[in-house]
Amino acid sequence: MAKILTVLYPDPVDGYPPRYARDEIPVISSYPGGQTTPTPQGLDFKPGELVGCVSGELGLRPFLESRGHTLVVTSEKEGPDSVLERELPDADVVISQPFWPAYLTPDRIRRAERLKLSITAGIGSDHVDLPSAIEHDITVAEITYSNSISVSEHAVMYILALIHNYLPAHEWVTTRRGWNVADSVSRNYDVEGMDVGVFGAGRIGLAVLRRLKPFDVKLHYNDVHRLPQDLEKELGLTWHEDVRSLAAAVDVLSIHAPLHAKTVNLFNDEMLATMKRGSYIVNTARALIVDRDAVVRALERGHLAGYAGDVWYPEPPEDDHPWRTMPHEGMTPHVAGSTLSAQARYAAGVREILECWFDNRPIRQEYLIVEGGRLAGTGARSYTV
Ligand code: NAD
């Protein structure tokens, strides 16, 4: 029997379960392109429930315990006395979410002698040291597409919020009890007519491009895989052979590539200097793709007009992380991919993967990042080690 160690974000401060705003969520059975949503043999929660936090347990307990497995769920993931550190040495499976990542460092992987499967309840498995997973023959899988559309909606929201100066204007009428139209509009622009680009045009990046098309903007992208010509034509896309050319061409840049050896620290002082004065960056991919302090410097001297997103490093960030107080930011905690709709899909996807694993059936190719000691499936297409 297996021990499944699951690291999830803490419960809401007002207790669990919360009072839900809606009674149901839309039923979605497939994604753009035809991939089906997860197909587990059963489900022990109601879609729309908060299952991503500790008490929600991804709805896994009845299923795992009925099969005789042990489920440990915790949000304590840092420090030598944390539950994660204590339970890791004899865990067979680790489940973690990018929103509250259990960083599986080379050292932790070395000490996790029984670990054979690491599941990302969401998308983006950079919190697992992939070279170590490869070396130790650990399968790494994630729930591809489960929250891609959720994130694309957020990216569009961050773009509009930054360009229209939404958060400062909101603050004028709420926290500051004012009616300061001139103060609010002095940084309020239209996105119409702007050059908008995505770095990484995979599932999320392409969905962002599709959603922005009706805004009458000029769309650009850079990706190691060029999109089909008819799609470029349909969306009026300009493809850039390298990210530097993309960065220099756009007013707004939305980042959607995974974090790996070729994307780490890409947007540093030098890259930011190539962008037009007054550019905006939205980052819902991973914080380490940008240089934390270079972003702060660019905002402070007015080279960047705004920076928004939901990804930080580390997560959760320190109380004095400079992105909490930098000017012209639109930051949230890591929430884009954890909507209640997305949770229903990634929790179902985790269950599907576990069913396959315990029943010796193959895991869907599109869910795989590492298998058999090498990058596999989506991992082979989107990551490098
Ligand atoms: P995807 O695999 O469908 O797309 C990633 C794209 O990036 C691919 O087309 C790939 O070719 C491209 N790419 C990789 N390296 C590149 C490079 N060096 N230069 C240019 N392009 C490159 O993944 P996705 O579903 O679109 O997700 C993208 C990332 O978004 C995830 O890896 C994750 O880090 C992040 N994400 C964040 C949240 C959130 O809640 N904020 C949720 C889901 C995913």
TrEMBL record:
Domain D-isomer specific 2-hydroxyacid dehydrogenase NAD-binding: 156-336
GO cellular component, one term: cytoplasm
Binding residues annotated for NAD(+), in chain numbering: S148, R203, I204, D223, P258, L259, H260, A261, K262, T284, D310, S382
Keyword Nucleus applies: no
Localization terms from the record: Cytoplasm
Record-annotated D-isomer specific 2-hydroxyacid dehydrogenase catalytic domain positions: 62-364
Keywords: Cytoplasm, NAD, Oxidoreductase
Enzyme class: oxidoreductase
Site (Important for catalytic activity) residue list: R286, H334
Domain of life where this protein originates: Bacteria
NCBIfam families (UniProt xref): PRK07574.1
PANTHER family, sorted: FORMATE DEHYDROGENASE 1 (PTHR42938)
HAMAP family registered for this protein in UniProt: Formate_dehydrogenase
Protein known as: Formate dehydrogenase
